[in-house]
Design brief:
about 350 residues, alpha+beta, Aminopeptidase, OB fold (Dihydrolipoamide Acetyltransferase, E2P), 2 domains, binds zinc ion
């Protein structure tokens, strides 16, 4: 039986074809039209409809490159189902190298949005109506904020068995069970029955090759888990992920110049020294210590801090467990057989 075409933003895409569609956002105040570009891969055969999106925060760019490589993957020619790729959800933020919209709102606090609300609310509403509403699953690609890097990690509602299975298929080394943040895309899509994963990796306004490779392999792993792609993985081993139920931020105990002593993926114990803060003359020095055992999943890269600034993000080990059984190494979690030939970004 022939598959139906799919219609996005008023454009109809036939089975077995691909199209780039501009979802109109109206006009800028200089009279130029502005749109959110979407690439649609509508498989010849039936299957789930999945969206992958990036730059909901306009300065978080690793996902933009993940999307480019994803769309170059030869295996997509045999896709079952439909893939909607939205590399820049917050197009206005991307133009300004900014996390926010020009009205200073955080788009990821404005979902599901409304047709008559603020600029951010309208953008969220358009995205929900045109992209999310027809989908069964979604993957939202993020990075840390400016001057803050995240270790590659999946955040999702891991108490839902199917979501946990998809999170494992992404094969990041760290899975963090996180509560829904009100107004987030994940919360709004989840409320419509869409299974959501959030991938966090790297730092705003920077490309990180390892985070990008892990992300591309991760999205392909999820599509394969959903039965949308066939074929064997090139992965020789699939690591058992570390599943964290909670995390905490270590804040700077004083103001000064920061020397970070531990890196992303480091396993740390309570009271370990993570960083040292000193005044510019080196006369006064304060240790920054871990409050509980865990693994470093985020940290500041700015060597300056005021008292109270968040410096190190640590995912806690489950009660009674130590970090002995875990290894967080630097080898990219990739899946080379699936990935297009690509010179690494250095
Ligand atoms: Zn983000």
């Amino acid at each position: 039986m022939a598959r139906e075409p799919v219609t996005i933003g008023g454009v109809t895409v036939a089975p077995g074809t691909r199209a780039t569609i501009d979802l109109s956002l109206g006009q800028l105040y200089n009279h130029n039209p502005i749109s959110m570009p979407v690439h649609v891969v509508h498989g010849r055969r039936a299957g789930p409809q999945v969206f992958v999106c990036a730059a909901v925060h306009g300065d978080e760019l690793n996902g933009v490159e993940i999307m480019r490589r994803l769309l170059a993957t030869p295996a997509l020619r045999q896709l079952r189902g439909t893939l909607l790729a939205v590399p820049m959800v917050n197009v206005l933020g991307v133009l300004h190298h900014s996390r926010y919209l020009p009205d200073r709102r955080d788009l990821n606090r404005c979902f599901p949005g409304s047709e008559t609300g603020s600029l951010a609310a309208r953008l969220a509403h358009l995205f929900m109506r045109e992209i999310v509403s027809g989908c069964t699953h979604g993957i939202d690609l993020h990075t840390g904020a400016q001057h803050r890097a995240n270790y590659p990690q999946i955040r999702a509602a891991l108490d839902e068995p199917e979501t946990l299975q998809l999170a494992r298929a992404f094969a990041a080394q760290v899975l963090l069970n996180s509560d829904l943040r009100d107004g987030s895309l994940r919360a709004a899509a989840g409320a419509e029955g869409v299974r959501m994963l959030v991938y966090e990796a790297g730092e705003a306004l920077r490309f990180d090759e390892r985070c990008i490779r892990t992300g591309v392999a991760g999205v392909l792993g999820v599509l394969r888990e959903l039965g949308m792609l066939r074929g064997r993985t090139g992965r020789t081993r699939r690591r058992e992920p570390f599943i964290a139920r909670s995390s905490y931020w270590v804040r700077s105990p004083g103001s000064g110049i920061v020397r970070m002593l531990r890196g992303l993926g480091d396993v740390v114990s309570r009271n370990d020294v993570l960083a040292r803060i000193s005044d510019p003359f080196g006369e006064v020095e304060v240790d920054v210590q871990a409050a509980a055992d865990g693994v470093i999943i985020g940290r500041s890269n700015l060597p300056l801090a005021h008292e109270g600034d968040a410096l190190v993000h640590i995912a806690r080990f489950p009660r009674g467990e130590s970090g002995d059984g875990y290894a967080f190494d630097d080898a990219p979690d990739d899946d080379s057989a699936w990935l297009p030939e690509e010179p690494p970004i250095v």
